[in-house]
Amino acid sequence: MRTVSPTGLLGKTSICYPLVTSILLIVAPLDVSGANDGNAVFEEIRPSQTDLQISSFDEPNYVFSGTLGTPAERLVVFFPGTNGKPQYLSTLLGFVARLGYRVIGLEYNNSPAVVDACASKRNPECSAQFREERVRGDVANAVVKNSVAESITNRLTKVIQYQIEHSPGAGWESFLVDDHPAWGRVILSGVSQGAGMAAFIAKRERVARVVLFSGPWDYVERPENLAPWIVDNSETPTNVWYAEYHRRERNASAIAKAYAALGIDASHVLIFDLDLPAAADRSIDYDLYHISTVRLESYSAQWRLLFGGP
After folding, report:
1. What is the CATH number of the domain that holds 88?
2. Among 192, 188, 254, 189, which Cα is nearest to 227's?
3. Is 50 exceeded by the pLDDT of residue 191?
4. What span, in angstroms and rounded, lies between the C-alpha atoms of 145 and 120?
5. Are 114 and 96 in contact (CB under 8 A)?
6. Cα(165)–Cα(172) distance, rounded to whole angstroms?
7. What is the value of pTM for the model shown?
8. What is the Cα 41 distance to its own chain's centre?
9. Is residue 199 within 8 Å of residue 216, measured between CB atoms?
10. Do residues 31 and 90 make contact, with C-beta atoms less than 8 angstroms apart?
């Protein structure tokens, strides 16, 4: 694992913090005016605009179509964390779009946190059932419920179909196969609970690349007992998995353990270590280091490495 800062590599390090059960990503939205630099196309599209059966978790998807006249061969799908919204990730999403990718910051049912719902239960399949319910809907025995229409798979499919209809000739049809996401052309990414969603899907579908920010850390009863799905065989080869966490976030050691169990090569794991901005409000009760890795543009060089940009 590599500890990184904007100035370079700092060597191996780790710090153990007490495990907490949920992280709220409730922060102010960022300015996306720069997302349209170089004629890149940015749109806010509510899930209910794409499917009338979607009514909950209806904050806008953030969709970046890349630079006009330059077809993107890959689509980055990014999942926010617990209680998060795509608008909170606009700096990172805009940066990834400028690397030449199409990007969808996907709104989905992301509350409660997986560990809040499952960690204390004796059912070792709880986390997998939870995530499967969010991904496809109507899963038996899941501790949370959402319909197929509200699922991640349907939400993603419908926003791509919306783009095909409203931006004809823009090439969005290449990201669907038989009205399902063309997973082989998709880079899955996310933060916290969203990182877990990206990892869970990549275990079951062969995707182009996986980029995890500070997650997952699903466990059964005790933090040292990782949820079984984390060690399941993966359809996506481990050589295209990339990940990061902040050395000083509260769940750093648990996240590092999960990355090793996922089989991610140590050279593909970056350990971020920037201080918080001076203006950060340290009196609030969520982990600012946990969310800083997707918000501080000072990490742009590391973001580029993770996503494989030119």
Report:
1. 3.40.50.1820
2. 254
3. yes
4. 19
5. no
6. 9
7. 0.88
8. 21
9. yes
10. yes
CA gyration radius, the chain = 18
What is the pLDDT at residue 310?
Answer: 57
The mean predicted confidence, pLDDT, of the chain is 86
The residues facing 4 across adjacent strands are 9, 272
Q: Supply the pLDDT for residue 109.
A: 97
Model confidence pLDDT, tens digit, residues 131-160? 999 999 999 999 999 999 999 999 999 999
Q: Is the pLDDT of residue 22 over 80?
A: no
Note if the bond before 223 is cis, omega within 30 degrees: no
Torsion angle in degrees (nearest 10) through CA of 19, 143, 195, 124: 60
Locate 129 and state its tokens. Answer: 């059932």
Q: Which two tokens stand for residue 213?
A: 């920010």
Nearest partner of 163 among 155, 154, 171, judged by Cα: 171
Q: How many domains is the chain built from?
A: 1
Structure tokens at 130: 């939870």
CB 57 within 8 A of CB 46: no
Q: How far apart are CA 256 and CA 243, in angstroms?
A: 9
β pairing state of 102-105 and 75-79: parallel
Walk across the sheet containing 8-11 and list its strands. Answer: 8-11, 2-5, 269-272, 241-246, 209-213, 186-191, 75-79, 102-105, 61-67, 40-45
The residue type found at 15 is: I
Of how many residues is the chain composed? 310
DSSP H stretches of helix in the chain: 47-50, 90-98, 114-118, 126-136, 152-166, 193-204, 252-262, 288-292, 300-307
pLDDT given at position 186: 97
Domain that holds residue 128: 2-307
List the Cα angle 68/182/111 in 5-degree steps: 95
Separation of alpha carbons 160 and 140, rounded Å: 28
Are the CB atoms for 135 and 77 separated by under 8 Å?
no
CA–CA dist 178, 223 (Å, integer): 40
